[in-house]
Structure formats: C-alpha cells, structure tokens
Amino acid sequence: MLDQILVPLEGSALAECVLPHTQAIAQAMGSQLLLLHVVAEPKLDNQPQVDPLNWYLRKAEAQSYMGQVSRTWEQTGQPITNVLLEGRTAERVVAYAHDHNMDLVVLSNHSEGGVAKKSSGKSANPFCW
Q1: What is the pLDDT of residue 23?
Q2: What pLDDT score does 102 carry?
Q3: What is the pLDDT of residues 47-90, one digit of tens each?
Q4: Are 123 and 89 in contact (CB under 8 A)?
Q5: Domain span at 58
Q6: 110-111 and 114-115: which strand pairing?
Q7: For residue range 104-127, what is the model confidence (pLDDT) as tens digits?
Q8: pLDDT at 48
C-alpha cells in the first residue's frame, strides 16, 4: 500500500508532466499526494548576505506556484498537500522523504533546463543507493 506519495517540483511545466500519472496512482491506491518545492539557497558569490526582500519575493512566488498547481489538481477531487521548504534542493527532498516516511517519491527526468541528458538528473542522484 502506498499511503503517501511525494512529488518534488522545481517550477517548470516539464517537471509537472509526472502529475497526471502520479495522481492516477494516488487515486487507485488511496494515497495522500504531497507536492514539495524547495526555495533553493542563493549562490553567494562575493555577496556578504542574502537580500531579505529578494528572499521574501522568491518564497512568495514559490507559494503562489504551489497554490496554482495544487488548485489545478484538486479540481479532480484528489486531496493534495503542499510542502514548501528552504535550502539545498536535493538534500531537503531526501531528508523530507526520509523523515516523513514517504512510500513513493516521483521524480521527473525533466529539469529547469529541459530534458535531462542522463536517465536521472542531478537532483535525483541522492535517491540512487
């Protein structure tokens, strides 16, 4: 039985291509669907600190994005939980999946740059044991 299914999203339409398939699995198995987005730490090249306004805007954009995606899929009757985290994307996704005992993590092989050149993208590497 799959009680909880986690879908990490990075903000692109390509990454969202897994949602119809994941939703079908969730409905068939009676699973809770969780959408996760990580607001990545900015790369601090020669910057002493993160601009608080910029960080706030990035978080607000991420919340808006997650709300939009979940509203689209909730119209089908599937309950969805949004999870918004901050930090290093791959590390936060792996930690969340582990700490919350996710039964399945669905990753797209698409990334913000388009179709991944390998069968699994950089963010998927921590899931390969």
Answers
A1: 92
A2: 96
A3: 667 788 888 999 999 999 999 999 888 888 888 999 999 999 99
A4: yes
A5: 4-127
A6: antiparallel
A7: 999 987 555 544 444 444 555 555
A8: 64
The total of structural domains in the chain comes to 1
Q: Which two tokens stand for residue 44?
A: 């601090």
CATH number at residue 78: 3.40.50.620
Location of structure tokens 């899929």: 73
Cβ pair 73, 19 in contact under 8 A? yes
Amino acid at 86: E
How do beta strands 104-105 and 80-87 pair?
A: unpaired
The answer to whether 115 and 14 are in contact (CB under 8 A) is: yes
Going across the sheet that includes 32-40, the strands are: 80-87, 32-40, 4-8, 104-105
CA distance 81 to 26: 13
